[in-house]
Amino acid sequence: MESFWAWFRWLHDATGINLTIFYDSFDRSRFARGFVMTVELSAVCIVLSVLIGIVGAWLQGSRLRLTRHVIYWYIQFFRNTPPLVQLYFFYFGVGSLLTATGVSGSPVPMVSNVTWAIVSLSFFAGAFNVEIFRSGIEAVPGATIEAAESLGFSRLRTYLLIVLPLAFRISMPALNNNLVNLVKTTTLAYAIAVPELLYVSSQIWSDELNVPEMMNALLISYFTLVGFLVYAMHRWERAIRVPGFGV
Amino acid sequence: MTATPAVDAEPIVVIDDVHKSFGNVEVLKGVSLSVPKGGVVCIIGPSGSGKSTLLRCINGLVPIDQGSIRVASFDVHQLKTDQEKIALRKEVSIVFQQYNLFPHKTALENVMMAPVHVLKEDREEVRERAVALLRKVGLSAKADVYPGELSGGQQQRVAIARSLAMRPEVMLFDEVTAALDPETVKDVLNTIRELALEGMTCMIVTHEMRFARELADVVYFTDGGVIVESGPPAELFDRPVKERTRAFLSQIL
Amino acid sequence: MSRLRWCDPLPQATDLPVLLPAASRLARSATAERTAGAFRLRLRPAHGVALLALFAIGCGWAEAQVQPGQPSILATLWKWTPVLLRGFLFNLAISAVAMAAGTIVGLFLGFAQISLLLPVRKGAWVTTHFFRNAPWLVLLFYCMFLLPFQVTVFGMTIQIPDWIKATLGLSLPVMANVSEIVRGALQSIPTTQWESAASLAFTRRQTMWMIIFPQCIKRMLPPWMNLYAILTMATVLTSIVGVNEMMSLTRQALSAENRSGLLLAFYSYVLFWFFLYCYPIARWTVRLEARYAVNH
Ligand SMILES: Nc1ncnc2c1ncn2[C@@H]1O[C@H](COP(=O)(O)OP(=O)(O)O)[C@@H](O)[C@H]1O
Ligand SMILES: [Mg+2]
Fold first, then answer.
1. What is this model's ipTM?
2. pLDDT tens, A3-13?
3. By CB distance 3.0 to 4.6 Å, which of B223, C17, C33, C121 could disulfide with A244?
4. Is any ligand 1 atom within 6 A of the Cβ of residue C8?
5. What is the pLDDT of residues A12-30, one digit of tens each?
6. Where do the domains of chain A lie?
7. What superfamily would CATH give domain A36-239?
8. What atom in ligand 1 is closest to the CA of residue C9?
9. DSSP of B26-81, one letter per residue?
10. CB–CB contact A132 C26 (8 Å)
């Protein structure tokens, strides 16, 4: 392994291509931490946004008009405004209200920037997921549900065994689009100094002055990350596809 | 029409032992036939028997694997340049089951497009001819209407006019009435009948047996990629020799 | 891609899956969004009203915190409006130039994606998907930091302002998305159209320009306009790389005022301007799409 890293030092000496993220252990671990942060941010937001989607879709079918209205306006707000504005809204707006008084007497934010990024991005992607799951549930044929009930399934079982699996399959293509978009949107966390991939890269290039190398490393990292997600999701989409059901 | 083709007329379409596979499915398994100039040939057979594929091969839309197809002086599957292909398609024109009009052009423009842009003919002359062709198919009133506003039968007649605008020697019709309402079928068949009686060489794939019987010089019955039986309509329809032909006819008549 | 092999007849479609309207609607929109690379913006008048309400709340909130001797919130906003609007014009300029550049290159890429030459086709595919998979912000950084700040042509030194670089950065994802929109539209034209053009002896080039592409324009216009609206909203990203557009100026204004409680009023005000600009575009898109749906 050492000789592998050392090769990049040789590359730098020989060609001037300065990939400190390989041969310099400090930069290497910085970059790796940034990468992990991006992956974590993506994973946590994916899970949370899917949960928001499921709960929201359920609430949207609520009998209470107020609940439906709240969900409706939640979706409308997050769908139709730039995610950067949403992030600033949470971080600068809500964040400045949620402060405690620190030891020195100056206000200290109670919620970290990472948390705000997670909250903001999850709500952003969650808004789309609510709509996606709602249409998925509506698309399950009533006859299928009746058939299940006539076979003696309870309502809950029908919901868990028939409606949700079918709704999920129907929602899958739209969900994929949204999650891929979410992963790309995590870069916005840079704007509130969350140490994710873009942010640590900018730190590295300002220390090492190797902007072109870092830019390309960054582009390739995201291309790989998003490419992997697109590929995995499509494989999954195909794997769970039922012939004659869906497109 | 005479019951037998004019023996002395020289053949204009000669198909010799044509084979064609899609993947590992052999769709045409050695088809041979010839059509004399001015002759009318009908091809009947169950769906999937390769009738459309045969017509597409004659027009050069689908390459063949083996055998040869000659149309007039062209060896269809030896044509290399665009110029040669254009020359072939001036000679032989195909009308599809689904009309395939260009939806963004009016009926008149559909008819004019190929002569103007492919044959590079004078626009005004083409327009006159196109108007005349639309009149011939009974649609002069619809010249400036878009395909989307025409009925199926009307669209199909525009498609026939569009093919005729290339002044072909041979017309191929691929189940042109199969997608039409019964009442509009008559108009399309009348148009084809007129053409045939004017001496146009026609190869017609059809399920309209009465029409085939009335118009054809020779009827070919195909099944499973081969010609099972052929002959003048009176013989083939009334005294089929092969069991398969009999079975098919008894089903359809 | 295989669909466009020259002259191949389309295999007859078999029994189509039967779907409830909701499912096919979702499937259709998912496919459309995947092709366009952007979600559908659906602006309604109610959104404008809601923004105004938010703005009113923000003003009320700020007004409640006005200290004696400070100007009122509306006066403050009025004072900053010329500055903010100059920033907004910047956003619009960036969006227009990025859209134009991205569209021109994207059209070429889209056509290259259905080229009969394998290397051209593959190359265009890779380029398209490389830029589609990269986050917009990363592409923005890429152009900001890697393009030179000045170029020398014939001994003349021309400065490249930041906003031009940012514009180029935004035009890259636009290019990739336009490329997919073009490819999707070209391939959505039934193969029978290619076939009947071939049977009338049109060459491939003629078929493309006279028969296929004209039919595509109608299908490309709605996703293209939607992309433009999304791009316009995305121009606020350039504030992160230091372009003085409306969002940067808003933050500068907020820190210059250094008063608490202005945030909501200012941001909803900014959003309202974006709404005013994007709303007609979104409406027009919907209208075009409906018209297209009726025709087919
Ligand atoms: N482009 C193609 N690719 C694969 N198979 C095809 C293609 N065109 C036709 N076929 C197959 O060839 C067979 C004959 O088709 P066709 O010529 O259309 O028959 P017909 O017109 O007699 O109904 C069918 O089984 C059809 O599925
Ligand atoms: Mg057929």
1. 0.85
2. 888 888 888 88
3. C17
4. yes
5. 888 878 888 888 888 888 9
6. 36-239
7. MetI-like (1.10.3720.10)
8. 1
9. EEEEEEEEEEETT-EEEEE--TTSSHHHHHHHHTTSS--SEEEEEETTEEGGG--S
10. yes
